[in-house]
Amino acid sequence: MTAPATARRTVRVDLGDRSYDILIGPGLIPAAGREIASRLKGRKIAVITDAHVAPLYLDDFMAALKAEGIEAVSLVLPAGEKTKSFEHLISVCDSVLAARIERNDAVVALGGGVIGDLTGFAAGIARRGSRFIQVPTSLLAQVDSSVGGKTGINSSHGKNLIGVFHQPDLVLADTDVLDTLSPREFRAGYAEVAKYGLIDKPDFFAWLEKNWRAVFAGGEARIEAIATSCQAKADVVAADERENGQRALLNLGHTFGHALEAATHYDSARLVHGEGVSIGMVLAHQFSARMNLASPDDGKRVEAHLREVGLPTAMDQIPGGLPPAEVLMDAIAQDKKVKGGKLTFILTRGVGQSFVADDVPQSEVVAFLKEKLPK
Amino acid sequence: MTAPATARRTVRVDLGDRSYDILIGPGLIPAAGREIASRLKGRKIAVITDAHVAPLYLDDFMAALKAEGIEAVSLVLPAGEKTKSFEHLISVCDSVLAARIERNDAVVALGGGVIGDLTGFAAGIARRGSRFIQVPTSLLAQVDSSVGGKTGINSSHGKNLIGVFHQPDLVLADTDVLDTLSPREFRAGYAEVAKYGLIDKPDFFAWLEKNWRAVFAGGEARIEAIATSCQAKADVVAADERENGQRALLNLGHTFGHALEAATHYDSARLVHGEGVSIGMVLAHQFSARMNLASPDDGKRVEAHLREVGLPTAMDQIPGGLPPAEVLMDAIAQDKKVKGGKLTFILTRGVGQSFVADDVPQSEVVAFLKEKLPK
Asked: In this entry, which stretches build a coiled coil (chains A, B) (predicted)?
């Protein structure tokens, strides 16, 4: 049933008395009961998942808990971004309280980023903070949203505007589940993997350029890439848990990316988050070159790698057309604060040399977007 | 307009980078604009209040903000415990986001405990944590709920089961507003003042026995009593912010009190929170005597003082009858965890000598309640 421990990696997220382990490797869903039972004082769990993930993994997961004498209830929510709403937050809270989950028990998110963000938020507010375990089932969730404690739901005023920082007590990243992802979903998660190289790990980016096929194929290279990504995010989060400074580096590619997601109305048929980040990272490198901060060759290198793995790298690859530069700029301004015509942006001096720039002229961004938008 | 600074007291709540000041004294609502403007980087505020408080203080408060160039919006909610619901939480969050309250701006709770708990929760989750200012308008809120960072709403499963710990950035306790409280409301808040003496400040309790008339009348003695209470709570909270240990002492009288509130269906015509605490504190002293922990004389002394100020001190003073001891015990068990027939309870060895007992036999509590319930 369970994989040999040698294939497994552990990343420690160091946050004082909120520190926790991320276990990464094959067979972690079948082994979940044992891993949880050995760490949890309580014997009760509420499992939150969605209609996409439940048919694939819920039975196995519940059986794994039962085998260790853990009493569990489950709640299956609709799949998709719309589930990150107050309506579903209320139903998760209600399930958790109805199951009488108390201090030593736990709430589990079994799913991708949507389920993780929603469930983490519910765990953060039920009894003013309950134990929380993440079992991320997408590559994106394994390398990004399940690390760092950001939880939340969307509001009519914008995405993720309501939530809390609530660190999990344990993350079980079962790499076997990634085999059931569509190539497009896997690639979208890979954009975030590449991001960690581009932020401050040029060696990791070079390693990915050589080894990306093995990462896509599975096995040791994939585990290595996920562990490196989790460690990279864990290091940033440990240094700046509440995003007062350097944590902003994790937004490399996200300012342009979020604007493109908003411009395509979060229609996943047109653009998913990781694809927006891929295009956004290329744009961030190109914009940095335009500002004479980086060589244009770095942008070309980033673009070549992301294109090679099959990710979109330019705005003209988004089906259905885009609004004009000024409208994209408005979307950026809604995401980031504009002070006196200046923006905070993640720019770069080259591969692995990103930095937080807080004085980017809005007019330069608009001019750049006009150049890059499909004519 | 504003009172001389000499009449004002400041209590510092020492919580590292979440430390804050509680200003206590007359004229703080008219002076609110100045006090806030000197501490807040932003210039935008969302004020949340209720239909009971708004006609009394909202205009003055908004004018005080405007005079200092602070842009403010307000939201008036229905008064009463039912407002602590997801429905109103959603509307507060929506107001805060619609007003584009950002990191350096603030959300203000202008009201009693209900408005404070609800607004603090909304501030704790809007943008994953916004600045929060408490302007408590009841004695109970000034000495209890506005200190310590507990926020929340009620659920069908129980009171305060959904919420976060979110410390305010500033508390303005304007003692002038207490003159508009009904004597019953003032007395109910006074029960919590007396509680701080009974927990671990025998000298303060003795001072109250001598000076309670001056506290009720207003002026220096009232300010002194409020400042001592806030300092007492601040000390406990600083030592144990998330209630892992000694913070439980603040629940003296609350285990019995909550059971009585539940038994009277939170009907404020029959029993308000502070009255439940008053009876609960007397019961806690009597029960401690029954367990041979304290002298019966201490219980008599506590009862005499609370009766003298006009608070109820025995269950037979609650109009409308009470359920049998077993039903009250069930309500206690819902509030507190029962392990192997044993309860955690705040007991006492005498006035100012309370302690956390975690092995109180349930059977003893039931027998005691049977004795004390009206026949």
From this structure: none
Contact A271, A321 (CB under 8 A): no
Is B104 catalytic? The answer is no
| Nearest-CA distance A55 → chain B (Å) | 30
Highest mean pLDDT out of A325-339, B64-78, B327-341: B64-78
pLDDT at position B3, please?
A: 46
H or E segment and range at residue A173 = strand A170-174
Active site residue B44: no
Instruction: Kindly list the residues from chain B whose CB atom is less than 8 angstroms away from the CB atom of residue A333.
Output: none
> Other C-beta atoms within 10 Å of B93: how many?
24
CB atoms within 10 A of CB A355: 17
User: Is pLDDT at B16 greater than 70 in this prediction?
Assistant: yes
B258 is catalytic: yes
Does residue B1 register a pLDDT over 70?
A: no
- The residues of A carrying an active-site annotation are 128, 150, 192, 233, 243, 247, 251, 254, 258, 273
Please spell the DSSP secondary structure of B256-268, one letter per residue.
HHHHHHHHTTT-T
The domain that contains A294 carries what CATH number? 1.20.1090.10
Length of chain B: 375
Q: Domain end: A112, A146, A179, which one?
A: A179
Q: State whether residue A333 sits within 8 Å of chain B by CB.
A: no
What does pLDDT average to in each consecutive run of 10 residues of chain A (375 residues)? 66 92 97 95 94 97 97 97 96 96 93 97 96 97 92 91 96 96 96 98 98 95 97 92 84 94 92 97 98 97 98 97 93 74 92 94 95 90
Q: CA of A10 to nearest chain B CA: how many angstroms apart?
A: 28
Q: Which residue of A has its CA nearest to B95?
A: A157
CATH code for the domain of B88? 3.40.50.1970
List the 198-257 stretch of B: residues with Cβ below 8 A of A: 242
Q: Domain span at residue A148? A: 5-179
Task: Say if residue A154 is in the same domain as residue A222.
Answer: no
Chain B hits for A337, Cβ within 8 Å: 102
Of A112, A144, A179, the one marking the end of a domain is A179
Examine the domain organization and report whether A352 and A245 are in the same domain. yes
Is B177 in contact with B131 (CB distance < 8 Å)?
Answer: no
Asked whether the beta carbons of residue B164 and residue A128 sit closer than 8 angstroms, the reply is yes
Q: What is the pLDDT of residues B31-44, one digit of tens each?
A: 999 999 999 988 89
Is a pLDDT exceeding 90 seen at residue B124? yes
In the DSSP assignment, the letter for residue B79 is P
ipTM: 0.92
What is the number of CB-based contacts under 8 A between chain A and chain B? 65
Domain count, chain B: 2
Q: Is B254 a catalytic residue?
A: yes
Cβ distance A163 to B124 less than 8 Å, yes or no, reads no
Q: How many CB atoms lie within 10 A of CB A370?
A: 14
Same domain, B117 and B233: no
